[in-house]
């Protein structure tokens, strides 16, 4: 989306440090934080986690 870390941080009311920690895998976001970030990026949590949990794109995510 072309957002800077500062732009995303402002949209989701999380610090740039926290967002950076999520990106680098140094910190795990809560489910609420994942949802807020996904909405700010106009996507869903499944898309955010696609590289982390490689479920089939056509299948439902585990638990759905």
From TrEMBL:
Q: Which residues form the HTH cro/C1-type domain?
A: 2-48
Tell me which PROSITE patterns the record gives: HTH_CROC1
Q: Where is the signal peptide?
A: none
SUPFAM superfamilies named among the record's database cross-references = lambda repressor-like DNA-binding domains (SSF47413)
List the Pfam families hit by this protein, alphabetically. HTH_3
> Which top-rank group of organisms is this from?
Bacteria
Q: What is this protein called?
A: Helix-turn-helix transcriptional regulator
Organism of this sequence = Nocardioides cavernae
Q: What is the lineage of its organism?
A: Bacteria, Bacillati, Actinomycetota, Actinomycetes, Propionibacteriales
């Amino acid at each position: 989306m072309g957002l800077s870390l500062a732009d995303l941080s402002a949209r989701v009311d999380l610090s740039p440090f926290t967002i950076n920690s999520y990106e680098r895998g140094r910190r795990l976001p809560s489910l609420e934080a994942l949802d807020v970030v996904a909405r700010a990026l106009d996507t869903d949590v499944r898309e955010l986690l696609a590289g982390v949990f490689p479920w089939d794109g056509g299948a439902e995510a585990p638990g759905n």
